């Protein structure tokens, strides 16, 4: 009987749309039997699959084992045959070239890095081969290079294993073998230099240069001779060898030691005496220009780039006996490498030891400091433009590219040595003391290059493009927030070109600012005429000054008037208050990497610095124009302003906002003064008061920065009035001044002020 809660005992009808017949009695449910059969079928199928995989794995294991066993039997047979032929010989030359080649083929087929006896066999063959070469001459033709290259790979593997085991005595013996092989096939060694110099760099990093014993000295001599061999052969692959050598050896800490280790200094000098510094600079400049520093894993750390820079400078100075710095500062490859490395390093290296962004275990020592400081010298900087191309055969693109390189170098020096910026500008202004051919002065050289840039042309035509040119790119925000985002290569190339153009313009502005300080009105208005009778002439023609004034007017106006739009990503990142379920607790410190300053893709420069540079230059040109008119009457007026009553009222409103912000700043200053004179006793040893004061100090700084950004956003017209008022007509400025006076009288009546004073 079928029962249900409704009381109906009739079984409900079962409709099977699948066409399968079910059991008429006691069925637990529709399809239960078929599901069990399906499960069993799936289990059987999985079991058969496992059996097939097990059989396949067993066949693979058997095949691998048979191959290993057959190779081992063949290696043992070849080893036995090799020993039979070598057993009767005792350090004697080979009887014929065929016998030597046959022994070499057998050796490379059975030699193993795990067999210590094979290392002895390789040494024995090398000794006999040396004697054979002395007797009958070198054996390098035909199939010899291929066989030598295989033997070189085996020796490198043996040295790599010995380096891991710190077997320095065995390494010295293996280096002798490697040196002999590299001498036989220098071209093939240069072609496969990556592993060659990687292994030798590991050996050099484990050598104890403080040990001046005879055995250690012999090891260093073997290492030095082995490193130099691929660099001496002038073949088509020598640049590859120099490139790998530079990235492998120049970042090594053992080569950047001070004078405390004369043994290490001797090893460094032996390398410097043997290499060709021009080939090294050419190889590194080509590699860094094509791939950039980000693609080089060897230079990922700041300390590695610092040692790379110091050793690179030292090799060039050593080649010129530490004299004549102008001989290598005019070398374009040297300038390119130095520019890229300096722009990638923080600017506080010379003033002190490395900070948080550099490895604390490797502070900058006297050796590295001396090499970097050698870049700042009058001869090298004054002769920077001596190698520039001024011939008519040079195309405009080549001239622009050359100017970019020189501008990168000059701007890198100004950024890296801010305290000696005036000296660098003066040396560029003076130029070379003696020159065989008359060159363009630095100011005119960079002016011609700046005029050809697309950035200069865009800003001169439209002031609004400054916002997009200066605004930080979206890729920077993604990188700082922890997301991995890669822009398209075409966009990266365009941003790199724009950054180079900005460097040319900024170097020109730096130099022209200095020139306006040291020249009087007569020299300024002289144009291209010779005033002092000297070969140099650093004054621009007045039509060029007019073109420059238009560029500076658009540039400076937009930096003040649209400061909020330019700093929009920075404000969003700094003022973000979005909630996160995975945010750390309030008591836990949140380590934040400081954002790198960048303007137009030029690292190390802040927007305030560029704003001050442009403002000072605009004021200087305006003062010259005020004393002796040479620009049109409406040159300094901005067409983007609508000079009406509403404009004046908005400036007055911005002035009120500025007063409020100044009052808040004054309150913070009062709080700081109260804390400085606070004589309340604190608990000694806990540091609670110091932590509390540091937190409050950081909060005050954040509030001050927030108010400054807020003032830039709400008072752009007031910024123009305060910094460059001549952008506004004189009559409008008079009306604004009257409004300010009226506002002061309303907020503080004169009579009330007089009575309060009495």
TrEMBL record:
Top-level taxon of the source organism: Eukaryota
Listed InterPro entries: E3A/B/C-like, IQ_motif_EF-hand-BS
Enzymatic reactions: S-ubiquitinyl-[E2 ubiquitin-conjugating enzyme]-L-cysteine + [acceptor protein]-L-lysine = [E2 ubiquitin-conjugating enzyme]-L-cysteine + N(6)-ubiquitinyl-[acceptor protein]-L-lysine
Signal peptide start and end residues: none
Pathway(s) per entry: Protein modification; protein ubiquitination
GO molecular function, one term: ubiquitin protein ligase activity
Positions of the UniProt region annotated as Disordered: 1-57
E.C. code: 2.3.2.26
GO biological process, one term: ubiquitin-dependent protein catabolic process
Keyword list, A-Z: Transferase
Basic and acidic residues: compositionally biased ranges: 41-56
Xref: PANTHER family: UBIQUITIN-PROTEIN LIGASE E3C (PTHR45700:SF2)
Name of the protein described by the UniProt record: HECT-type E3 ubiquitin transferase
Lineage, top ranks: Eukaryota, Fungi, Dikarya, Ascomycota, Pezizomycotina
């Amino acid at each position: 009987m079928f029962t249900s809660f409704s009381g109906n005992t009739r079984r409900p009808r079962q409709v099977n749309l699948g066409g399968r017949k079910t059991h008429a009695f006691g069925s637990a449910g529709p399809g239960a039997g078929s599901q069990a059969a399906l499960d069993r079928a799936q289990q059987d199928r999985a079991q058969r699959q496992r059996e097939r995989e097990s059989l396949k794995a067993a066949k693979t294991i058997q095949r691998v084992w048979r191959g290993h066993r057959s190779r081992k039997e063949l290696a043992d047979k070849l080893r036995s045959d090799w020993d039979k032929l070598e057993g009767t010989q005792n350090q004697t030359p080979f009887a014929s070239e065929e016998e030597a080649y046959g022994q070499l083929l057998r050796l490379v087929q059975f030699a193993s890095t795990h067999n210590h006896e094979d290392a002895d066999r390789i040494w024995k063959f090398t000794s006999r081969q040396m004697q054979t070469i002395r007797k009958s001459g070198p054996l390098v033709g035909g199939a010899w290079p291929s066989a030598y290259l295989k033997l070189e790979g085996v020796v490198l593997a043996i040295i790599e294993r010995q380096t891991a085991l710190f077997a320095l005595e065995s390494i010295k013996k293996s280096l002798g073998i490697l040196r002999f092989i590299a001498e036989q096939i220098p071209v093939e060694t240069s072609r496969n230099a990556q592993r060659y110099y990687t292994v030798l760099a590991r050996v050099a990093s484990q050598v104890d240069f403080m040990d001046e014993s005879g055995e250690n000295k012999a090891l260093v001599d073997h290492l030095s001779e082995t490193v130099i061999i691929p660099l001496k052969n002038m073949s088509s692959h020598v640049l590859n060898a120099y490139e790998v050598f530079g990235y492998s050896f120049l970042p090594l800490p053992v080569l950047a030691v001070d004078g405390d280790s004369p043994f290490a200094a001797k090893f460094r000098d032996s390398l410097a005496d043997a290499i060709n510094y021009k080939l090294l600079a050419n190889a590194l400049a080509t590699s860094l220009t094509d791939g950039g520093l980000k693609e080089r894993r060897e230079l990922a750390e700041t300390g590695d780039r610092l040692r790379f820079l110091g050793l690179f400078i030292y090799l060039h100075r050593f080649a010129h006996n530490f004299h004549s710095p102008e001989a290598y500062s005019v070398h374009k490859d040297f300038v390119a490498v130095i520019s890229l490395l300096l722009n990638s390093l923080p600017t506080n290296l010379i003033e002190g030891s490395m900070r948080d962004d550099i490895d604390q275990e490797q502070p900058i020592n006297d050796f590295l400091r001396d090499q970097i400081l050698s870049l700042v010298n009058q001869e090298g900087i004054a002769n920077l433009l001596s190698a520039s191309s001024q011939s008519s055969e040079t195309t405009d693109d080549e001239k622009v590219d050359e100017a970019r390189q020189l501008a990168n170098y000059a701007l890198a020096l100004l950024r890296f040595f801010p305290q000696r910026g005036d000296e660098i500008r003066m040396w560029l202004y003076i130029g070379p003391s003696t020159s065989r051919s008359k060159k363009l002065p630095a100011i005119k050289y960079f002016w011609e290059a700046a005029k050809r840039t697309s950035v200069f042309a865009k800003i001169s035509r439209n002031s609004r493009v400054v916002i997009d040119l200066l605004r930080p790119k979206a890729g920077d925000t993604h990188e700082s927030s922890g997301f991995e985002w890669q822009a398209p290569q075409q966009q990266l190339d365009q941003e790199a070109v724009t950054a180079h153009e900005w460097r040319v313009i900024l170097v020109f502005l730096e130099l022209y600012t200095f020139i306006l300080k040291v020249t009087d009105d007569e020299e300024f208005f002289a144009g291209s005429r010779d005033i002092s009778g000297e070969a140099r002439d650093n004054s621009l023609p007045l039509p060029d000054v007019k073109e420059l004034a238009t560029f500076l007017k658009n540039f400076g106006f937009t930096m003040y008037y649209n400061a909020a739009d330019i700093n929009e990503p920075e404000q969003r990142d700094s003022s973000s208050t979005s909630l996160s379920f995975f945010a750390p607790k309030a008591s836990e410190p949140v380590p934040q990497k400081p954002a790198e300053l960048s303007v137009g893709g030029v690292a190390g420069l802040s927007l305030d610095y560029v704003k001050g540079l442009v403002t000072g230059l605009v004021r200087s040109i305006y003062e010259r124009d005020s004393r002796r008119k040479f620009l049109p009457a409406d040159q300094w007026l901005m067409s983007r302003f609508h000079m009406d009553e509403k404009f004046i009222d908005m400036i007055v409103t911005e002035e009120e906002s500025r007063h409020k912000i100044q009052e808040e700043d004054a309150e913070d200053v009062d709080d700081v003064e109260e804390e400085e004179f606070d004589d309340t006793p604190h608990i000694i040893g806990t540091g609670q008061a110091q932590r509390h004061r540091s937190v409050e100090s950081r909060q005050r700084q954040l509030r001050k920065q927030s108010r400054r950004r807020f003032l830039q956003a709400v008072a752009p017209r007031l910024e123009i009035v305060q910094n460059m008022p001549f952008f506004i007509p004189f009559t409008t400025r008079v009306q604004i001044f009257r409004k300010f006076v009226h506002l002061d009288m309303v907020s503080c009546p004169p009579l009330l002020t007089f009575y309060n004073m009495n």
